[in-house]
Structure formats: C-alpha cells, structure tokens
Design goal:
Blueprint lengths: L2 H15 L15 E5 L8 E7 L2 E12 L10 E8 L14 H16 L9 E3 L2 E13 L4 H14 L2 E6 L2 E10 L7 E8 L2 E4 L3 H6 L2 E7 L3 E7 L6 H23 L2
Parallel strand pairs: 4-6
Antiparallel strand pairs: 1-2, 2-3, 3-6, 5-6, 7-8, 9-10, 9-11, 11-12
C-alpha cells in the first residue's frame, strides 16, 4: 500500500473514530435506495434496477427448460452469475469473472437458496425436465456495497418474474403463464468494522478502510452469513451487525414487496 493510500485509510478511520462518516450518514443509516422493477420490460422474464447511493445494479431473469440436479430430480434449478463491467469501475476488467464477481454471486445465491425463497418443487415439468432460473447481475456503477445492491435487485426481479408458456416441448418467448413461485423476500445487509465501530452499507471509501465485513441475509429469521476482509470480529460486533441486518432488512423488504 503506497503512502497516499495509507493516509487515505488513516483519514477515514480517524473520521469514523470521531463518530463521523464522510457522507454525513449515521453509522446505522443506509444511503438512499431506489428500486425499479421490470426495468427492461418484456425483454426479460423479470428485471430490476437498484440505485444505492452511487452504486447501480441491473438484474435480469431468464428461464429455460433443462435437466434437474441428480440429487433433486423433481426440483427446479437457480443459477446466479455476476458481471462487473469496466464501465462501472476502473478496477474491473473484461474477461472471466474475478474473485469479487464470484463472491457477489455466491453471497447473493446463498441468501436466496438458504431461505428457500423460490419454491423449486413447483418448477418440475416432467421426468428429467425442470425450469432453470438464470439470475444475471450486472454492475453499472460501483460506489460501494455491491453485495446488498445486487441481492436487493435479484430478489426484486425474482418477485416480479413471469413464467413463460411451455407447450409441445417449446418455450414460447413473450407469452406468459403466471408468476415465478417466490414465497419470501430475503434481504442481505452488509456491515463493516472500522476501528472499533460497526457501520452498515459501506461506501467505496469505507470498504477500502474496513478491517472486516459481515453480510447477514434475513427474512423473519437469519438465513445466511458471510464474512469478508482480513480483520477479526468480536462477538459483540457480530451481534450488532445481526441486529442491524434484521432492522434494515425489514425496512427494505417492505419496499420490495410493495412494488
């Protein structure tokens, strides 16, 4: 880490230790969030655009028919991929998904999968044929906290996803038959530790200065948890992050379910 970077990190840490965030928020306050469903219209089975501060995430949902997993022959399949476009950040490069893209996809996937949000048993068609749900996450602008913005965009898109018609072994694009069976709305909430302080919804600068990160995905219970960063978290840090995740997750969930 060069001298300028060290000075920047020290400055952010000192501000946080003094009870301040660079953007003036409280430690338990999210940036302004906007959620727009069906952003691309009928070009996708479902879609959503989320703006979280300076971060913008677009999620598109597509469905196709394929084979189930061998250990779940009568259940549909969900697969999530993330594309971090160079236009979103100078740190992103073209080519195969890097570590950050893989982590975002895995954390979002785990929260949705462990909450059983999609009733995958209802995606069974016939022997060796099930619906496969593809969730494609695209980062348009990176202003910090890609995980929460991606997770919210993914579940907002899934909640509003239409099921294509399937007749005579053909998926009929542009014709719909009901909604994707989604029974709950998992919401990931990410907190970071800077010094001895826990802050929710980190900006890019705060992610740079963080010691550790914890994402907790909740419905009416805790569904998944993922730690990031090289620092350690004390028991009270984890409990604080969990409490914040339940509180903020409930607020975000109401917005998603009202769309």
């Amino acid at each position: 880490m060069d001298i300028e970077a060290c000075l920047r990190k020290d400055y952010i840490t000192n501000q946080v230790n003094d009870g301040k965030r660079l953007d003036g928020r409280k430690f338990d306050e999210y940036r302004d969030m906007e959620i727009e469903k069906d952003y691309v219209g009928e070009k996708a089975c479902g879609s959503a655009l989320v703006r979280l501060g300076d971060t913008r995430i677009l999620v598109g949902i597509s469905l196709n028919v394929g084979e189930p997993y061998p250990d779940a022959p009568e259940s549909g399949v969900m697969t999530i991929s993330t594309e971090l476009r160079p236009i979103a950040s100078p740190n992103f490069e073209t080519g195969p998904p890097g570590g950050e893209a893989i982590e975002v996809a895995r954390v979002v996937d785990r929260g949705i999968r462990e909450s059983n949000a999609i009733e995958t048993e209802k995606l069974f068609i016939e022997e060796n044929k099930v619906w496969i749900v593809f969730v494609d996450i695209h980062a348009l602008d990176h202003g910090g906290n890609l995980i929460d913005a991606s997770g919210v965009a993914a579940i907002a898109a899934l909640v509003n996803t239409r099921m294509p018609k399937y007749e005579d072994d053909q998926v009929i694009r542009g014709e719909w038959k009901g909604k994707l069976p989604v029974k709950c709305t998992p919401v990931p909430c990410t907190s970071v530790k800077i010094g001895d302080n826990i802050l929710i919804d980190p900006s890019m600068d705060e992610e740079y200065a963080m010691d550790a990160r914890l994402t907790v995905t909740t419905t009416d219970m805790m569904n998944a948890m993922q730690k990031g960063g090289q620092g350690t978290l004390k028991e009270e840090d984890i409990l604080s992050a969990v409490d914040l995740s339940f509180e903020k997750g409930k607020e975000i969930r109401k917005v998603i379910e009202s769309l």
